[in-house]
Amino acid sequence: MIDMREPDPDRFSARQWPDWSFWTDPRGGGSGVHRGRVRSVVVNGLMMGFLATWVIAIADGRYGPVRTGLVFGFLGCYAVAYLLVLWFGPLALRRQRIAMVAAMFALGATPALILGSPAYLTGLTYAIATGLMLLPLRISLLLGVGAAVAQIAWMIVRDGVVAWGQVLTLVAVTAILGIVYALTFTIGHLRLAREQIRRMAVDQERQRVARDLHDVLGHSLSTMTLKLGLTRRILETSDNTDAALAEIRDLDDLCREALSDVRATVSDYRTVSFATEVAGARMALRAAGVHAELPAAADAVAPELQGVFGYVVREAVTNVLRHSDAQRCVVRVGRDWLEVADDGTVPAEIVPGHGLTGLAERMSAVSGSLEHGRGPHGGFRVLARGPATGGAA
Question: Any idea where the Signal transduction histidine kinase subgroup 3 dimerisation and phosphoacceptor domain is (predicted)?
């Protein structure tokens, strides 16, 4: 009984059904794959010239017109069926593949039975080749061995001697056709894999740019909004133009910094400093009227975590500014951990957005982890752990 279970696609197995789906994958090479499919049919069709020697040998009239006509008819059907199987077989369902291979063996063995000669079982070469193309390797190999054994047994029973040249012809031509199919199959999958790698590289770069732009613009625009609001209130409620000008200068610096960050992000040259992000968080929280408790120095953080912890501070503080009514924000750090907590209102259901999802990806890239949710004393807490953290922060 044929095993219909799905094997692991990433591991070769003799039970694995040949997967020719790349022939129909619209993203897997398009016209190039179509040309490869046509080329395979043409090359294998030309190899059917082996049957021309049979036509010449049978046409001498020694088998009589009836048997000769029947044999020619079956040979013609055999050749046409072979070409049709080459074209449609790889895209057929498994039960259809089994039916195609069975029909090929029936058509290939019939001329030998009509003529009563085991020599013509050599024609089963093409039926065995379709088995190699459509069936699991363990089944197609058994069919090939079975055909060779049947030919040898018939020769012994009929003539008492084995014509090893004919048997070797069956084996050799089958091996050649099997190699042709294997090369076609391998080249097609390599082309598809190359196309998939190209698409994955493009997608990863798009995700990187989208994530970095979200981190850069989210924080910068939130801080600018707060600065603009503070400047407007100063101008509306007092004549303190010096304070308003100071806020406008900060806005000018923020705009230039954001523009520089965007350019660096697009060109993949942007680097993040934990110390810089802490300084930016201090300015943004002060502008929002949030009491900030920040680390005095960034030296306590491991050098390899400086960049990713900078992103955590940036995104966590941005969330405090945008989504929270917090009055207090605390940032605590260790060598391989970072905690950002506030005392704002936390919704009953917390759905992580693009920012927290991006932070989780960044922490995963350095073998770390990210936790977020309601803090032990209320408010929202973000806890980042580096790869060396063994317990809770």
Answer: 205-271
